[in-house]
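User: Could you go from structure to sequence for me? I need the amino acid at each position, not a summary. Structure tokens:
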């Protein structure tokens, strides 16, 4: 499909599905001949590349976002960094921070990333799964064990969790890490979820 045949409605639909900028959506549609699914894939690939290039930049600006739920029974405070105060005030960045705080309230992760999980705890989980698959053929035990460990990571690590609003906003499942990659692409800056605290009334 020629570029001239790409309509504003197509661009708008792609932007709503991916959160990417209008020009990026138009270019992606042009490069893929108007194929929306291929354009989504292309934008995600470009977003991952952009995130990789920006990952080393210091996030000295940002915001602390708070969220309460259930008449104040659950509260969340999350610190999210970026490179400039301009982006820290950007609506897309602010909405991202709010989405993350809301997700933490709902899904109760224990750590931001796998790197933060204590090594002894990871080994204890791995050993537990090894025992669970001891009756399986030896050649598949390691693969099943690692699969179970990855599933555990997706429950306890924020970046590995599936975002609760992915289907609603993007019509597809995506992890918090993929959502972070989307905001990196949208803002053109490194975005880092630094730390969070989740409080629940009566919890330890």
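Assistant: Here is the amino acid at each position, in order:
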């Amino acid at each position: 499909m020629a570029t001239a045949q790409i309509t504003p409605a197509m661009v708008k639909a792609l932007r709503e599905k991916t959160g990417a900028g209008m020009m990026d959506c138009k270019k992606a549609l042009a490069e893929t001949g108007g194929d929306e699914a291929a354009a989504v894939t292309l934008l995600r690939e470009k977003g991952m590349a952009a995130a990789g290039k920006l990952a080393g930049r210091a996030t000295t600006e940002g915001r602390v976002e708070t969220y309460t739920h259930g008449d104040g029974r659950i509260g969340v405070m999350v610190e999210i960094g970026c490179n400039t105060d301009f982006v820290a005030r950007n609506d897309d960045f602010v909405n991202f921070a709010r989405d993350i705080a809301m997700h933490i309230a709902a899904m109760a992760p224990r750590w931001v990333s796998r790197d933060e999980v204590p090594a002894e705890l990871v080994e204890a989980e791995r050993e537990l799964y090894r025992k669970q698959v001891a009756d399986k053929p030896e050649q598949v035990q390691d693969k099943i064990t690692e699969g179970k460990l990855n599933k555990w990571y997706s429950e306890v690590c924020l970046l590995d969790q599936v975002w609760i609003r992915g289907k609603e906003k993007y019509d597809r499942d995506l992890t918090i890490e993929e959502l972070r990659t989307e905001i990196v692409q949208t803002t053109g800056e490194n975005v880092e979820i630094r730390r969070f605290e989740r409080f629940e009334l009566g919890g330890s």
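One structural detail worth keeping in mind: The two ends are 59 Å apart (CA to CA).
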